[in-house]
Amino acid sequence: MSHHHHRNRNTGNGLIALGVAALAGAAAFAFYQTQGRNRVAHRPPDSAPGRLGRNGRDPYAVVGRSVLINAPRSDLYAFWRDFSNLPSFMENVRDVAVSGDVTSWSIPAPMGPVRVETRIVNDKQNEQIAWRSTEASDIETHGKVTFRDAAPGRGTEVEAVIAYVPPYGEVGRWIAKAFQKEPAIQGRRDLKRLKMLFETGEIATNHNRKK
Amino acid sequence: MRALTWQGKHDVRVETVPDPEIVNPRDAIIKVTSTAICGSDLHLYDGVIPGLISGDVLGHEFMGEVVETGPASTLKKGQRVVVPFTISCGKCFFCERQQYSACDNSNPADKQDLSEPLYGHAMGGLFGYSHLTGGYPGGQAEYVRVPYSDVGPLVIPDGLEDDKVLFLSDILPTGWMAAENADIEEGDVVAVWGCGPVGLFAVQSALAMGAGRVIAIDEYPTRLNLARDLGADVIDFKQTPVLETLMAMSGGIGPDAVIDAVGMEAHGFAPDTIFDNIKQHVGIGADSAHALREAIMAVRKGGRISIPGVYGGFLDKFPLGALMEKGVQVRTGQTHVQRYTKDLLHKIGEGEIDTTFLISHRLPLEDAARGYENFRYKQNEWTKVVLKPGTGAAS
Ligand SMILES: NC(=O)c1ccc[n+]([C@@H]2O[C@H](COP(=O)([O-])OP(=O)(O)OC[C@H]3O[C@@H](n4cnc5c(N)ncnc54)[C@H](O)[C@@H]3O)[C@@H](O)[C@H]2O)c1
Ligand SMILES: [Zn+2]
Ligand SMILES: [Zn+2]
What we know:
Radius of gyration of chain A: 26 Å
Structural class of chain B: alpha/beta
Shape of chain B: globular
Shape of chain A: elongated
Mean pLDDT of chain A: 83
CATH architecture of the largest domain in chain B: Alpha-Beta Complex
Oligomer: heterodimer
Low-confidence stretches of chain B: none
CATH superfamily of the largest domain in chain B: Medium-chain alcohol dehydrogenases, catalytic domain
Distance between the termini of chain B: 22 Å
Bound molecules: nicotinamide-adenine-dinucleotide, zinc ion
Largest sheet of chain B: 7 strands, mixed
Radius of gyration of chain B: 20 Å
Structural class of chain A: alpha+beta
Low-confidence stretches of chain A: 1-5
Number of domains of chain A: 2
Number of strands of chain A: 7
Largest sheet of chain A: 7 strands, antiparallel
Order of helices and strands of chain B: EEEHEEEHHEEEHHEHEHEHEHHEHEHEHE
Number of helices of chain A: 4
Strand content of chain B: 15-25%
CATH topology of the largest domain in chain B: Quinone Oxidoreductase, Chain A, domain 1
CATH topology of the largest domain in chain A: Alpha-D-Glucose-1,6-Bisphosphate, Chain A, domain 4
Strand order of the largest sheet of chain A: 1-7-6-5-4-3-2
Largest interface: A-B, 25 and 32 residues
Number of strands of chain B: 17
CATH class of the largest domain in chain A: Alpha Beta
Mean pLDDT of chain B: 94
Helix content of chain A: 25-40%
């Protein structure tokens, strides 16, 4: 009796396995029909910003974000161009020292503060500011912030793109993410705070008391 | 100060927490004189909205006296104000278009990370409603810090007592917007699911906008009676099959517009409700949507669906085919409160709208936990609870 029972269970499992295999087969066939047979040999670049492409080719991690800010392009450019303004909305930037084209930044990081030194490599008034790290910098990075007029009445589109070689490679990037210090997270929040500052004159907080 | 805090599912307590102070230039501090418990608070009480932290102060329907103002506030000490539950900056893309609940600036930047992956976009800030919408301490408290006090708060003329104007903070504009979103035309048949405060104000608004017949659906006799008093026909879904009845009451074509004023915790003994509830109990993110499914099935071809009821996550067995094939219009959203407050205050002042019929219980703030429990488990008798900080005994 128990032997018989056992064989029955086995047959049951076998049937289920067969069913799953049949379903998987059907799914694979459907995928082949729609995707496989409609193969595209070459994909010309589309209109998305370069930072969003799926095929990264270099050691740099590229992060970026666009925000719409209800303020004139020239005001936003001028505010950003004076780097001493940046700590007012960049949570992670402590000290900024500017001398000529070279700026040095102190940024707290999970494994101790990082000193970044950058030089302006492109400065187009009211359009773009681009920078690149110098030899003396702890981190190899380059980036740019671009200011474009949005549709009439909508203000300015501000886009920041930062490329950097993650310290300690991919592992370092994970650790930074866990501490919410990763540039993608920081950059996103910083741009939102810039937007708040320009549109509302203050930075939103749910804190009920001053520190 | 004393404030009602969330401690966990079905556990809320009045505790002593630090008084708020002015933090940003546009802030004001309000000393609360009246504050209500909302059906939305029950979603928090039941633990079906994610993003609460134990100790959070709840409450988003409140009014009171201005006691402190930041340098950029336009309010004056001593003014009586009703505060919209939506926190709106008044300056962003959305606020400029009067889509106040979509404000892009009121939710703090780090909190926006919570709703952006969930909804594709970050939500605006709301008082006392989880960290998805900013984690702002709420109004079931003695004092509240009100951001952007030059935009939101509505100054109330002397002579209009609290009970007449308190609901301008949420449910009155919510019922109004629910009806507006149904694009009601003269003579329309409009069906409203839920005779809670939101459903009742939607009934009242739909009739004011010219509906020929409003049909209100619920299971609680007291609530159905309030709807009847406003001028609605009613369906008790425990007695009567809703779909067939609506067809019979609309000449066989179905209601021109349907309003879901139930939201994510619909009840009713139906297979979809049972599955939805099981999923809600094993994890967050699943909505129970029997009322919405029924509303979509009921609406006539080419009709309009308005959804003021709150949903937070995902849903299956959704009648997407009916939605598409019938060519209907769907409008939704947290209420753009600031868009409606002035007009509705005027209507209250003129005696065109009464809101006091709704209040079944007034309690001191200290009894807030009892208010939650009864509003949740004695829905037939407890239709709306107003808390009065600073008062002693229950009235
Ligand atoms: N959009 C907004 O800005 C906004 C504002 C306030 C409230 N809300 C939401 O509106 C909804 C209603 O709020 P409320 O304060 O009236 O809540 P409530 O809990 O007092 O009322 C809900 C009513 O729905 C009834 N109901 C439950 N299942 C039903 C079903 N299957 N068919 C018909 N009726 C059913 C209940 O019996 C109850 O009377 C909630 O989801 C709330 O979160 C939305
Ligand atoms: Zn409410
Ligand atoms: Zn705004």
